[in-house]
Backbone:
């Protein structure tokens, strides 16, 4: 189920001295990454861009590539010095970390256990096929038809429908005006060799729609789009519907964001004058921009050939969003979503014509929107439950989707309960001074020298840091806390480093000085950021704990935990448990699916079975209003600490903290 | 089945002297009509407008109203003289026809049998109800819903769907964007009292569409449109879908007519440049004009109240047309309809949004098009077969629809065969010098003085004649032939009357001198008109005869004959058999349904059962290509006489001719 992206590629071995610790790593990775995986700290504040020059190591055996900037003299290079962050490992190598770069006394080497990362659950097409549910709802079928004669002069569309029945066992087919208006010419253009685009109905009882017809055979070109519309960010994928391959992925901030960071402020705006239309136009604009970007960045081959994808070849789009975002996209009045008893306009949606929604897609393209459960448990979470296979598993599963709102689902194939809690946008970079979404230059991993408190910043794309993404924030707070830089309340202790100073929002820690960063200022994290972060994690933890207890279970009953959220490429489980975001569970039970909503929409593009099942699943999901569960507020208040007021809930965290303190 | 429009009204008795023949007639009719019904001739060439003054009669007992113009002096009026054509009968009356007005010697009185008219089959809603198939596909349902609270906060649309299920047992409901976008406000406007417009799906397996929602209770206002689009004329009806009542009917020439009188010339035009778009625009324009006219002329009450109908209240439109007209309306390329092997683009059509077809109707209005059988057996004939109940009867039925093309269907509930033959537009007034469609001023009945050959013209609306409609043409030709004015080849015999003269197209008979007519010229019928007429009737007769024989039957096997065609308010069966349009059958077997296509569309507006059955019926109908049946051409040539070359096929006609000749 958990796929290592390139299992077949031979890993190479990196040995670090003086600790003599070895790790296996994929060729192409950097030495700093290898050190991180080995649990070793190397000072590095420029995010792997080679600018700060602090991460010098000495290669003692083997060699690495590209590990030099003007920060190293030719003499040093000849002596074996390399810059760890910009090195590329291609074969076995032994490297010494000099005292000035590493942590003194090998403390880290001996006392900090290897970190557990919940690896990305990579979408597995074979798994779909094995389960017999790989059946893209839109299929393209080539037909060779006989030309009409005296004894067979059925109508053009009748000929095609007959062919689909005879050659592909497809029945109950209906064609709209677009197809009828061109079918005569198309049939005769390549002597009755045609390709039809067929949209299977979502329910077995309705007709299948013949949405397009082309002259010649084009069945190898069948593309769809999967979209997750978040309050903060919108992500899209361009999918090859024959192979299931993701040809491109792109994300952008939701353009509505300038009208408020949370759903409530968007609703307030939408209630006034043309606000609803404006909100819709903004998000539609964002989607259209992402679509253009997907076309530009799609990696060939595109359905066997290298011919660029024409927008006319997009046959379907599946969209998941929270209930408010769905309402704003469709221009449904969201007014009552924010007013008790929180009544949305609709939770189910029929298939729409994508162009009717303002999307710049061909007239035949169908848009499917994921149904939602309630005003605060939206189609995004339903998409995650569907896409992750939670609804099909026997295992008792806790599913947590971390976004501006966090949603929690507990259950399995037999029952499902869900709840939403307002986490705030911290994990998406919102409300954090230098927060950003998981994009190039975002600090996504971090370590600290326990003596000097110098940082090791690792960024997405190994560029100079420009901000902090969700997964980075998690690791930074956890690491600062573990090393006594932060106390249990999230306030800075008085430790001796110039990196801690008084800023505009109280005390702050400088992750990257301006000169080492990719922006024109220092990159910091301050106490207000940390407070926002703690609020977010507390809401999620309290929500999960409350829901588990409401259904009469305990954390130890969980057989699987699925984490979702567009906050980075992986999640560090030790950190997540150290700061009390997650209850302490066996790390092997945890998978991280990244953007679960996006995954669910992609799965829907590839499996009509999932589309069919979703109605039943939504009916089955029981919604809890946390605000009405008495214990929730107490749980929340108790969770507003690192990791929690009740440390007995986090025994491993306790041990780790003790080890660090003893290490000093 | 055959309804006398006002059965409950007491008929009055009119006795004519000197023949002493009496007829019963409805109050309000004219004396000339009564004479016609009695088989008596009164000279009258002005169509009942009172202009010619030739129809003077003397009232001997009782009286009539309004029977005087300046053509009668006060003295004459005092003596009892009245103008028969403008008289109104309101009570029993005895009238003498003076020699100068009537036929001499009482010939008509004694020898011409009473005419058999196939009376209009008036659409019977009770019949639909009795058969359990009165179920308008679009229904309006009032719902009183509970307002949401903490324990019941389902989505707005969910509340309505739930209400439809609980209160009306309606399930499987889907709503589109239009409804979703307004439902929040509408629900709350009248405190959760709403009216939904529900479109039942045509097939049981698809979802029912919630197409509109209104605040308050509006179930009594539910209107639909029924349209027949002929090559020559377009007819529409505005129907109250609750009562089944026709609120208005209107017709107009199809605006395409300036591009050719038959389907072939329309197709030729549509093949060039923007021709198809133009053809579509033209007929759509005609439909839109008729819709406006229907609104203007609709007779109150409109669904209980007198409030005028708003165009937003039109919920559905059903359209029937021949295959070419259907293609042109939908902008489907008709090119192959005119080329062997005559392949249309489509014979089945999904429901369309009426506004997508260019119709000036609300966005929620659904347009249903009748399916057709082949390029030359169209949706109009299918509509007739459905609307007349032919598809549900056990009786072996011959159905003939007379239009620009004539279609013939034979069969019953178990089997159906059909064929089309090109009759030409004569019966709709096309190709006839002074032909016109059945509208005010059209001569629809006719009699001739056997001595003087003076005419009795009776027009629709009793206005001065402006032309000849189809049913009038039939009677005129038959009467001229019966009285020896025309010979068996349709040429004028040399009879002594100034009304027969040489015109621009050979010999012609003057039906109405300019002064007596409602136009600025004489109204005539000439030999070219008669030739066109004979061609038309020959094609129809030969088609019916051929089809009957192809399925191994004889005329005598027929248990029912249904005549359809928009050529007048009734059809004279004796005339139809005299000139050889119809095979000689027992007149009681014949019903005339007028515009069968229009009737079928109205029935579809009122019965979803009929919509559901139509697919099966169309599948069952076997199409014969007459041009490929060897005997057809011979039948046609043999039918190019009055009534036929083989007089033994028309024994009654033979008898009648003999009687007239003996009478002279």
Residues:
């Amino acid at each position: 189920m958990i796929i290592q992206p390139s299992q077949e590629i031979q890993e190479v071995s990196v040995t670090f001295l003086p600790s003599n610790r070895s790790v296996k790593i994929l060729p192409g990775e950097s030495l700093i990454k290898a050190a991180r995986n080995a649990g070793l700290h190397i000072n590095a504040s420029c995010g792997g861009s080679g600018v700060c020059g602090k991460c010098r190591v000495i290669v003692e055996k083997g060699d690495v590539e590209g590990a030099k900037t003007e920060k190293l003299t030719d003499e040093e290079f000849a002596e074996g010095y390399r810059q760890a962050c910009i090195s590329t490992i291609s074969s076995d190598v032994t490297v010494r970390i000099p005292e000035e770069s590493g942590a003194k006394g090998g403390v880290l080497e001996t006392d900090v256990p290897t970190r557990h990362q919940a690896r990305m659950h990579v979408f597995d097409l074979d798994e779909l096929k094995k389960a017999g549910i790989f059946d893209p709802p839109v299929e393209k079928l080539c037909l060779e038809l006989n030309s009409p004669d005296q004894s067979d002069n059925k109508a053009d569309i009748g000929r095609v429908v007959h062919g689909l029945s005879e050659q592909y066992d497809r029945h109950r087919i209906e064609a709209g005006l677009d197809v009828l208006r061109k079918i005569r010419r198309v049939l005769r253009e390549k002597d009755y060799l045609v390709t039809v685009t067929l949209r299977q109905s979502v329910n077995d009882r309705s007709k299948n729609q013949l949405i397009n017809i082309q002259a010649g055979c084009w069945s190898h070109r069948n593309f769809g789009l999967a979209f997750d519309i978040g309050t903060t960010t919108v992500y899209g994928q361009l999918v090859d519907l024959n192979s299931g391959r993701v040809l491109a992925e792109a994300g952008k901030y939701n353009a509505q964001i300038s009208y408020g960071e949370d759903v409530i402020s968007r609703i307030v705006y939408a209630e006034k004058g043309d606000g609803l239309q404006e909100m819709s136009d903004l998000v539609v604009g964002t989607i259209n921009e992402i679509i253009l970007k997907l076309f530009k960045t799609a990696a060939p081959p595109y359905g066997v050939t290298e011919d660029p994808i024409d927008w006319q070849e997009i046959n379907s789009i599946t969209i998941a969003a929270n209930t408010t975002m769905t309402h704003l996209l469709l221009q449904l009045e969201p007014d009552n979503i924010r007013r008790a008893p929180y009544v949305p306009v609709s939770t189910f949606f029929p298939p729409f014509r994508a162009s009717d929604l303002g999307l710049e897609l061909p007239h035949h393209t169908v848009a499917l929107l994921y149904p939602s459960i309630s005003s605060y448990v939206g189609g995004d979470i339903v998409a995650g439950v569907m896409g992750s296979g939670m609804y099909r598993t026997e295992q008792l599963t806790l599913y947590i989707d971390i976004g501006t709102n966090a949603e929690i689902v507990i259950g399995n194939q037999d029952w499902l309960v869900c709840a939403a809690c307002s986490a705030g946008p911290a994990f998406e970079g919102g409300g954090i001074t230098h927060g950003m979404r998981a994009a190039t230059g975002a600090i996504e991993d971090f370590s600290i020298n326990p003596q000097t408190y110098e940082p090791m910043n690792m960024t997405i794309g190994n560029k100079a840091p420009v901000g902090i993404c969700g997964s980075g924030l998690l690791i930074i707070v956890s690491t600062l806390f573990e090393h006594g830089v932060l106390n249990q309340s999230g306030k800075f202790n008085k430790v001796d480093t110039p990196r801690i100073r008084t800023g505009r929002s109280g005390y702050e820690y400088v992750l990257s000085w301006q000169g080492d960063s990719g922006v024109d200022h220092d990159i910091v994290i301050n106490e207000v950021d940390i407070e926002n972060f703690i609020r977010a994690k507390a809401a999620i933890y309290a929500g999960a704990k409350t829901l588990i207890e409401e259904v009469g279970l305990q954390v130890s009953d969980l057989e699987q935990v699925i984490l979702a959220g567009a906050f980075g490429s992986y999640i560090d489980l030790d950190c997540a448990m150290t700061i009390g975001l997650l209850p302490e569970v066996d790390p092997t039970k945890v998978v991280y699916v990244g953007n679960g909503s996006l995954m669910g929409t992609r799965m829907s593009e590839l499996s009509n079975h999932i589309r069919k099942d979703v109605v039943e699943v939504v009916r089955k999901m029981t919604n809890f209003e946390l605000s009405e569960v008495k214990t929730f507020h107490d749980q929340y208040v108790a969770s507003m600490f690192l990791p929690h007021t009740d440390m007995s809930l986090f025994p491993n965290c306790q041990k780790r903290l003790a080890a660090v303190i003893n290490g000093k």
Observations:
- Chain B is about 30% helix and 25% strand.
- The two ends of chain B are 41 Å apart (CA to CA).
